[in-house]
């Protein structure tokens, strides 16, 4: 609710959404990432991810696309898979830090920095833990490339976006970077990358900005 007592546009829209549709969306996203993790070839997993997201965005009642954008939707813009942007990394220690983000539907969301990962040729990124019920790992990314200008998510395990681990090392595959819901519907407010998740060079991988949709 806004300071003046008025319900925000995002909250009004969320109230009108069928919660069971949102539940089904999250189940499907979780199942899609499970299929990605099961693929032996990461490129095959990426192709499955692309096809699954296109289907969800085009057909699911909880799609973040606005009704006017769904009519002409032909698929998300995703860069070709680049194996050089898949990393198996150890989460290194980092000084504790807390951040809070005000969202359109979830109120104030708190994160605690749990460490950092070094991505050769890209830079270092803070790894965050959602410090609320259930918890979850959160790894956003902001770069000056063709992705959504507000930043993208690589991992958001509480929402099912989990690429897993190999031999105790975290899978950070930038080919799976995707914009949050606010990229498609400006009424939403989403946690966006902080300076510790901003890199200097463009990351031409993952889902790129849709022309005419988002920022």
Q: How many domains make up the 3D coordinates?
A: 1
- How many helices in DSSP terms? 4
What is the first-to-last residue Cα distance?
A: 24 Å
Strand order of the largest sheet: 2-3-4-5-6
Which stretches are low in confidence, meaning pLDDT under 50 for 5 or more residues running? 1-12
If you had to describe this structure to a student in words, what would you say it looks like?
This protein is α+β, with helices and mostly antiparallel strands and 215 residues long. It has one domain (9-197). It has helices spanning 9-15, 19-38, 42-59, 67-70, and strands at residues 86-89, 98-102, 108-119, 123-130, 137-141, 152-156, 165-166, 169-173. Strands 2-3-4-5-6 form a five-stranded antiparallel beta sheet, with no helix packed on it. The protein has a three-stranded antiparallel beta sheet with strand order 1-8-7, with no helix packed on it. The chain is globular, with a radius of gyration of 17 Å. 27% of the residues are buried. The model is unreliable at 1-12 (pLDDT under 50).
């Amino acid at each position: 609710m806004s300071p003046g007592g008025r319900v925000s546009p995002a909250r009004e829209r969320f109230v009108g959404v069928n919660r069971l549709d949102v539940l089904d969306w999250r189940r499907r996203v979780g199942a899609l990432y499970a299929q990605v993790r099961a693929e032996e070839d990461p490129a095959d997993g990426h192709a499955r991810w692309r096809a699954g997201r296109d289907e969800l965005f085009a057909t699911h009642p909880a799609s973040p696309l606005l009704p006017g954008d769904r009519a002409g939707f032909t698929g998300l813009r995703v860069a070709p898979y680049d194996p050089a942007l898949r990393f198996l990394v150890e989460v290194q220690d980092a000084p504790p830090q807390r951040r809070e983000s005000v969202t359109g539907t979830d109120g104030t969301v708190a994160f605690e920095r749990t460490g950092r990962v070094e991505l050769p040729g890209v830079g270092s990124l803070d790894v965050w833990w959602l410090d609320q019920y259930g918890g979850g790992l959160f790894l956003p990314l902001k770069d000056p490339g063709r992705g959504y200008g507000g930043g993208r998510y690589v991992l958001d395990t509480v929402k099912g976006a989990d690429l897993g681990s190999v031999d105790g090392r975290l899978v950070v595959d930038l080919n799976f970077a995707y914009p949050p819901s606010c990229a498609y519907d400006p009424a939403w407010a989403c946690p966006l990358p902080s300076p510790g998740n901003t890199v200097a060079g463009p990351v031409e991988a993952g889902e790129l900005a849709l022309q005419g949709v988002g920022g």
